[in-house]
Amino acid sequence: MTEKVLFANPPWYKAAKGGEPGWLGIRAGSRWAYMKETFGSSLVATALPFPFFLAIAGAMAKNEGLEVCVRDSIVLGETYDDFYAAFKDYSPDFYVMETATPCLGNDLDICKQLKKIKPGITIILTGIHSELEDIAFLQEQTVVDYIVYGEYEQAVTDLLVTLRDGKDLAGIPNLIYRHNGQVIKNAIGEPLDMAKLPWPLRDTLPNESYYADFCGLAKPQLQIHSSRGCPFGCIFCVWPQVLYKNGKHRLRDVDDIAAEIKDQLAKHDYKSIFIDDDTFNVRPDHVKKVAKMMKENGFSSLMWGTMSRPDLMTEELLHELKAANIYSMNYGLESASTNILKNIEKGMNVEQAVKMIKLTYDLGIKIHLTFTIGHPGDTRETIEDTIRLACELPAHSAQFSIATPFPGTKMYEIYKEKGWLTGKGWDAYNGFSSAVIRTETLTGEDLEELRLEAMRRWRQSIAIRSVNSAQFAADLKNTLGELPQGSRVVVLQSAMFAFTREIVKTLLKTGYDIHLFSHERFAGEFKEVLGQENIHIFNEAGNFDQAMLKQKAAALKEKHGFSGAIVPYSNLTGVQYGQAHKVAEDIGGRILAGIASNGHIYPGGSPCVS
């Protein structure tokens, strides 16, 4: 009988309960495993990376005659019970899982449960957590049978074949195993040759669901690699230090990339392509070849994007990419300070990076920027400079993270030596909102507050910029076109007050009689824009609670006879604005428009309101 192997990206989440938010974890395929806060019942995140290493290892094992299933519970939105039921139904002989620092405890608990379901299962653990490489880890974690560290696809395949055939394990690279009561650690192997790797095994994955939520790339999305590795020495970057163990940059043959895309497009109705390289634009000749390939094969008719260093971009490369109809670009800038960038060994030319970001935007390419605070040398002043630069740069989305020194990285050793690690457990190393560090001048609490402040100010800057454009004014006028001049319109102060204020300013130019309905704590921000008689204040509730505001809304509606209401949103979709919508209908009779934080206008209000 053919041995069965399950390559799994199992569940990792905490469900929202009793009004308290939950979170969803992102693991396999992500360079930094992290947790994303969620309020709803869905267990499917908005940004989902493809589990390349699991899927490539699965393809290699299948080529060796093993029966293989690659299962991604995170993209399926599976509960733990769903996953255990699927495991029991498939009943594999071998279980291969990719773990990471913040989900290690979760994943070991899963392994224990699987051993209860099927005591004879052989569990192979891989992933980006340096403790896996310590022989003491396997000595302590008896639920795990084998560990394959580093770049694992070939080594896992060799292990599976060797176990199937009953041969000696001594020659398998990257392997840690038990033998005669001892734990043996084999040496690391050579970096894998991209030309010898098969395409990822996608047959058992929900390919119609994979997408990355960067700059609005449509789904379903095909994610591919055109290269692997990065020659730069950023002290925080996990994959080059923990997974690859080197800075070697390896390219795929462009013809092979084209063949994989053609194969996948024949099987699935993908709407976009994301080239998920560590650093796409390391070699200009490769960038040009990919751009040419996208055009010549007709792939540029789809939305596509990638990740790059902005300071490595040139006008020539950007024009080549634009000619290939690239839709979006993700740039990691991290800091506005040249000294901080030297400290983290990123070595980025800030002036060149800013110049290329602006050119990218001017060419009509959507931009996602990433910034990190809490690096060695960071102070309130340097972080303020970074926030200010982020708010000035043209971009369509941005991400602010707190520096997270994952074990196995140079950053971890620096922070450990300086005594800057705060002693929180591995599950706090989510690389996003939780500080597990301090710096010479800032506490972890300071960094968490500064990250929130950075996001607040960036959202405010992008919101104000979006509604100050001529296009927004034209779209808004078109949306309200049926209203006679002089009609009374009420705007709810239901978003960032600076955002609402700019919307009110634009509306005042349309010739309508504009009123505002606001909690008293924000009303003063509008005194220079609207007359006192047009500002209607409430303090019966702390927010837009329909039951508590129904009487006041009805009185204002009767007195002023509003023709409709406008509801600004602090987010992109209007989700969780159900109560505000009800108040808007009570006071205005109807909702004329909902306005998202990026300036998008929803006539009649967003359909995503809940």
Outline of the structure:
The chain has 610 residues and is an alpha/beta fold.
Please give a structural write-up.
This protein is α/β, with parallel strands linked by helices and 610 residues long. It is 36% helix and 19% strand. Helix 9 (284-296) runs parallel beside helix 10, helix 15 runs parallel beside helix 17 and helix 19 packs parallel to helix 20 (578-588).
Task: Name some characteristics of this structure.
7-stranded mixed β-sheet, alpha/beta, 610 residues, 6-stranded parallel β-sheet
| Contiguous runs where pLDDT drops below 50 for at least 5 residues | none
CA-based shape: globular
The neighbouring-strand order within the major sheet is 5-1-6-7-8-9-10
Alpha-carbon distance between the two ends: 52 Å
Helix content: 25-40%
Q: What percentage of the residues does DSSP assign to strands (E)?
A: 15-25%
Structural class: alpha/beta
Sheet with most strands: 7 strands, mixed
Number of H/I helices? 20
Q: Report the average pLDDT across residues.
A: 92
Rg to the nearest angstrom?
Answer: 27 Å
Number of strands: 24
How are the secondary structure elements laid out?
Elements: E1 4-9, E2 13-14, E3 22-26, E4 34-38, H1 52-63, E5 67-72, H2 73-76, H3 80-90, E6 94-100, H4 104-117, E7 122-128, H5 135-140, E8 146-148, H6 153-165, E9 175-179, E10 182-185, E11 221-224, E12 227-228, H7 238-244, E13 250-251, H8 254-267, E14 272-275, H9 284-296, E15 303-308, H10 315-323, E16 328-334, H11 338-343, H12 350-362, E17 366-373, H13 380-392, E18 397-402, H14 410-418, H15 444-467, H16 470-479, E19 488-492, H17 497-508, E20 513-519, H18 520-523, E21 535-538, H19 546-560, E22 564-568, H20 578-588, E23 591-595, E24 601-603
